[in-house]
């Protein structure tokens, strides 16, 4: 008989609805039961694409004897970390403090008040390789709670104090200067894998926020070290098994240092951030291959990760038919069955397919050698080789579609959708894809209409139900996407919505007694601590993106309070971002905006008129991360009251016109794209040090 999780919408929670464990979702009912029965709470946190979460479910939560023990001794709570990042952050901090490491599944034992007193990650069903079995853990924790209550309460109070201090403490503010960015660059260079790209060794994560910082730093300073790190990493990932060579899009990370063998889950947030980095690098370096990867990644999301209402789905699993990666790998015989022997030999040579394989007897398609080398070996031209592989990909994709697909978590998460909204908005202009604009606009409308209630955002949506309070990252990431959507479309609605959400974000999340923001809002339920994440991870910290959007909106609106708030965050994180730059990529990008000179570009004319659109496209053809772009609407000049850089910007002689200014210094208006590009390239000559 299904347990209480059958009433939930989270695919991860629904995966556990038939467990013999008497699971509760997090909420007042579970906490009240723990208080009434004086039982400790076991909170188990994971997510639907988590391989080891599935393993522990099968080994322990589906085991009737273990489940009986859990039900007798504890109030058991299942949490989807993607729905509740606040709980995940609090209890992950606890497990890291107690054990020195973290990960998922996360299993924490709490007092009835929700205070952790013991925690760990994966536990095997029996003692194994030095790890105690889960039943032994259950018995020991329950015995301690029953027989050594004073000791448990003391540990819990110490952990409460630790969590409170950890979430309230903020670094001492430092001075903002180019020296910070230089120190950060040197630190990233030390962590960089100069042979394979990326940072550190195995397992290796893409870390797109760091690549974004390197691109922006190269743009501002011309430092070739930053450009070289971006080039090597983007090339290696695009050629590696971490990139889906058949269907597009990136897997979560590589288990090795060479980007070959991925953990096969696909996350919306990775693909959103990586699509943008490839878009930026395509413009920065005039690199067609980067355009191809960005295009294929966005097409993958449009095709497989977009719901009928316009929301983007969260994840795709690593496993199908109980095997990790089975959906994605190929044997030479399978290639030949789809392509024929002759083309399969060419495609297999290019993608490294061999009878032995590179993953459990099959091949993860990748590009281990340059096309010129493979072509010479096969006795064909590089052009013929690439034409054959390009023609093969749709055939392989169609054949792969007949396989059993990995599971998909089809809930919509506001913050992750904000990341992908920005990618589609910018992709619509950079790639000249009107269909991407339609996807972006539909997504923005869906989020604003469905995931907002009484002026405040909600976190998640599935099966017609939007729920849970929005977090700082939901506001910041959506604002970020709406700013880009306005600059791609010049539809006033999007910037108005961005500004309205910014006011709510500041009111709900700002720390008025210090600097920066909390992750939970003023109206959020009271927890054992109020989390505040300052470090960027797989997704940027909400604080990082909040600082970034405040600085950009400050430049657009002239609102000095926005700018001051953004700069206070940067000052607070000055020393951490310089000393530990790999963990602060997005806030370092915001620093680059603050150090650079924002270029204000106001376009006047008739939207949709070819002469106007040519000017708009010219702005998007260049990599100009410090440009703020707007439409000087002659019919509705009231927007200029909100965005003063649009004021008094008429078309010249009835022609579409561009005005380029930098901090109150303006260049002559131009009506041709060549003139606009020249002005963007030269600037006004005003540097931040002179202001």
UniProtKB/TrEMBL annotation:
Domain Spermatogenesis-associated protein 20-like TRX: 2-163
Alphabetized InterPro entries for the sequence: 6-hairpin_glycosidase_sf, 6hp_glycosidase-like_sf, Ssp411, Ssp411-like_TRX, Thioredoxin-like_sf
Pfam families from the UniProt entry: Thioredox_DsbH
Protein's recorded name: Uncharacterized protein YyaL
Biological process annotations from GO: carbohydrate metabolic process
